[in-house]
Amino acid sequence: MGIGTYILVSLVKIAIALAILLTAVAYTTLLERKVVGRIQNRWGPSRVGPFGIWQPLADGLKFIFKEDITPPFANKPLYMLAPIIALTTALTSIAVIPIGPWIRLGSINTPLQIADVNIGLLIILGVTSVGVYGVALAGWSSNSKYSMLGGLRASAQMVSYEIALGLSLIGVLIYTGSFSLRDIVDSQAGTWLGFIPKWNLFRGQFVAFFIYIMAAYAETNRIPFDLPEAETELVAGYHTEYSSMKFAMFFMAEYANMVTVACLASILFLGGWSGPVFGPPIVQSLLPVFWFALRVFAFMFIYIWVRGTLPRFRYDQLMAFGWKFLLPLAIANIVVTSLVVALK
Amino acid sequence: MLSLILFFIFAALCVGGAINLLVQKHPINSALSLIVVMGSLALIYLLLGAEFVAAVQVIVYAGAVMVLFVFVIMLLNAGVEERTEHASRVAMVLGVPGLIIGLSLAVWVVSHLAGLDRIAIGGPMVMNGSDVFGNPQAIGHLLFRNFLLPFEVTSVLILIAIMGAVVLARREE
């Protein structure tokens, strides 16, 4: 493949990945409103189109036409920069996430992934750790007490839970011996006894999976860890002063981060796109993507389910949980996994 | 060729960020400039073929250390710094260029003696005639086989530093 074809294929893949991600983000908001609505015994949006399926478009239009207010005493450059950082970092992590095996289109043979790099997992961790600045700067630059408290809470929470999150992945890395997400999926291929899949979840990373899920909920500021935007105490937290598309950018960033977390959980613990493949060639090449999407959907659904079910933690409980429970548990998991691998 | 262009872009960004760090009056702007410096350093590491160090640079420095800097600036609500009136003009005219030239010479001599100037930007990733050195496997091998004792001693040193910080920060009861 020549350099020209390579760039063209990459650009097409970037466009497709962004379109899929943004559509997923838009429809996750609809799914959330529908599911939380049913949990609370009401219908949720139902006016725009059948079952309200055009609701995200209507919301988007409304955001565009809303007045964009900048508070008079805000630090304007940083106030503008914060939502850009938040959204950019949230969308960047999708670049290294594989959504399926290699496919062949005519003479072009390409992986279903924008870039297969050998430090893929580290890139995602790095990009999400830079995403903290979006939240922190939004809180600081708005020059409002609620935003400030929200920003402080968010940055402290994200820094604390990043450690547990990172350590929970070490067990998987010990099994795989690679940071490449494609290698991690490939290492989980196959089954035991013909029907139990060799997912990392069943290979002894059960504890790590739950540490990851809990730390990821805290990283994405979702209930039960949504202290940074606790509406009952902080109005809306770090984005209190934001309106119009700037608010929408924070909103999209939050949901894009949720999608990334769900993709990562599927890849690391649930075997990525593994699943039964059958039928004609076109179905065979698309079925893995479908199995992957199914896992991601299940994670998003659990996110929303948890949101509709659980109350919010207190801030000291949140910090104690992260540092005194999740972190030691993650370290214990690393020790046990290393012992198992070493003694095998 | 492409990597040389990228190197000049990120090197300029790095030096520009470092100068901006000194010039800015508000601490949060200085902290953000430092993040730009850290980020462009990571990309220069990447151009050198040290992808693991690049990723760790972003995660640890840009993502954790600098977040704490920004956090402290936010928490203390530090304002615009005050300038002292009598800045020495001799220091500005002679001292700064002299310092730059002296440091460049020192860096050149040291890197020449250590053989570091044989590492080409974007070139083949060879160091001291051995194989690829920047990927996680090679670094893990170096850390846990060749340099195990220094690595462990450093970890203990950092642990002692953490405990010292805890002891110093604890209130008297």
Short note summarizing the structure:
By secondary structure, chain A is mainly α. Chain A is built from twelve helices and four strands, in the order H-H-H-E-E-H-H-H-H-E-E-H-H-H-H-H.
Task: Describe the structure in your own words.
The complex is a heterodimer of chains A (344) and B (173). With 344 residues, chain A is mainly α. In chain A, 66% of the residues lie in helices and 4% in strands. Chain A has helices at 3-39, 55-65, 76-92, 120-141, 145-168, 170-176, 181-186, 206-219, 231-234, 244-269, 281-309, 315-343; strands at residues 100-105, 108-112, 191-192, 196-197. In chain A, the strands form two sheets. In chain A, strands 1-2 form a two-stranded antiparallel sheet. Chain A has a two-stranded antiparallel ribbon with strand order 3-4. In chain A, a hairpin with a 3-residue loop joins strand 3 (191-192) and strand 4 (196-197). The longest helix of chain A has 37 residues, at 3-39. With 173 residues, chain B is mainly α. Chain B has helices spanning 2-23, 27-47, 51-76, 89-114, 136-146, 148-169. The mean pLDDT of chain B is 81. The interface between A and B is medium-sized, with 29 and 23 residues.
